[in-house]
Fold alkaline phosphatase.
Amino acid sequence: MTKKALEILDYKSKSKDAGFFLMVEGSRIDMAAHQNDPSTHVREIIAYWDAVQVVRNYIKQNPNTVVISVSDHETGGISVARQISEKYPDYTWKPHVLARVTKSNELITSALLAFTMSNSHPGSFMQQKKEFVRHTVLSTWMGVNDYTEEDVDRLATYQDYGRIQQCLSDIISKRALIGWATHGHSSVDVNLYVSGYNSQKLRGNVENIEIGHFIKNTLNLDLDKVTKLISKERTEQKYKSSSSKLPDILQKLYYGHN
C-alpha cells in the first residue's frame, strides 16, 4: 500500500510540479497492544519496518523528501524480563514463544465464540470444544503444548470477548516472560525517527507539537489560510444542500487556488 501510494503521488506531483504529503499508519500495532497480544504486536511492528524501508528507498531516489516515524502514544506498558515467581528473578525473556504463534488473539477469540458442534465428532458440545481448544487453539495456533487443564477450561467456557483475550494474553505472555501494565495507553515516551531533507532540524527529546511545526515550516504551509478556507466551506454548507463540497476543498488545497 505504501509503495503504490508513493507511485501515484510521485506521478501526480511531478506532472503538476508540486509536492505531496502522505501519512502511513501502522494502526494494528496499537490494537495488538490494547489486547496485550505480544506475538501479533511484534509482527505488526516488523510489517511497519517494511513500510518504512519502502519510504527510505524512495528518499534515496528523491533526496528532497523527508520521512518522520513516530507514535502518538505507547500502548500496553509492555516490558520484557517479567518476573513470574517469588524467587530472585531471572534476567531473561523467551522470544521463541512468540515465533510459534500463527494466529492473533483477535482471530482466535472470534473462532472460539463462533465454535459450533460437529456431527462428525463424538461427544458433547463442551467435550468437542475442549478438544478444539487443546489441539487447534493451543497446540496448532499458539504453539503451546505445556498447557494446563485450567487453560483449557477457561478458553472453552468463557463467553466474554475481553476475558478470552486476557486468557490468551496470559498464556503467551507468561511463557515468554513479557509483562503488561494496562490495556490502555501509557505516558511512556515514544521513539522519534527522521530521515531525509532537513531531518537534522528535528532531533533529541521534543514535544509532540514540535513535529507539527517542523512539517509546517518544511512544507512552507499557511495553516491560517487553510483554517479559514475549511471554516468558510463548513459555514456555507449549513445553507446548502447535503451534497459534499470536500472534493472542491481538496482541489483548492492541492493546487493552491484561492
Remarks:
- The chain has eleven helices and six strands.
